Automatic annotation (TrEMBL):
Domain of life according to the entry: Bacteria
CDD domains: TM_PBP2
Gene Ontology BP annotations: peptide transport; protein transport; transmembrane transport
Protein's UniProt name: Peptide ABC transporter permease
Organism taxonomic ancestry: Bacteria, Pseudomonadati, Pseudomonadota, Alphaproteobacteria, Rhodospirillales
Domain ABC transmembrane type-1 intervals: 91-281
Origin species: Oceanibaculum pacificum
Amino acid sequence: MASIADHPTPASRRNSFWRHFRYVLASNPVTAVAFALFMMFVTAALFGPWLVPYDPLATDGASALQPPSWSHWFGTDHLGRDVFSRVVVATRLDLSISVAAVALSFAAGSALGSLAGYYGGWTDRVVGRCLDTIMAFPLFVLAMGIVAAAGNTIENVIYATALINLPFYARMARAEVNVRRESGFVQAAKLSGNSDLRVLAMHIFPNSLPPMMVQISLNMGWAILNAAGLSFIGLGVRPPTPEWGIMVAEGANFIVSGEWWLALFPGAALMLAVFTFNLLGDGLRDLVDPLRRT
């Protein structure tokens, strides 16, 4: 009989996780860079309003359209607002929209896909037809229509972004669960007296997570691009709220007249955020993959 010492304690699980985390970072320098960039964005999102030198909403007509300088690192916009302060503060809103939208689409999509893959039959057919209906539309156009019909609010941007990302998780979860539902460890779990839902939630779904982690990371970048795109065309966040898409749209009007910094810096922040999440996918997959734990 196994002794109590054979069972891992919460403290040992935490130590094992951190050892595995350090191993993943050490084995892949690109993942380490991605996590460092991710922590930079998280820090800007959490503490940005207290770190910036100027109020991002404060206007100053005498300082309008100044190029980058020591006093204004990213220059000022047409209302005299500090671009650096607005870019940093906008990180919180863009990341919040992205995290909320991806969390909703992951929770709903993985649940629907797992049920469809495990039970099959009419459940699979109904879920599949609903996903096909969503995928039949150009996804950004569908998001535009939802926001335009439901109202131009941050909540509706989140719901629209979550809806267009939902099929990716549902289809991936369905495929992963469908492959594993007849596996030996699943049969053993059923013979142990576990219900179908417990087998699905505690045995099959955790083994389906590694490939979905890559999808989560990619969707984080797509969600930021989607939110910025909606704001760029006037269907997302409204001025004067600092948001990367709005800032790029406002700066585009001044590129011809030579004020290049208005669109460059928020656009660079948007590009760097998407680049970070694209690099982060492999690291997240390795962290949750049971086969890579040592």
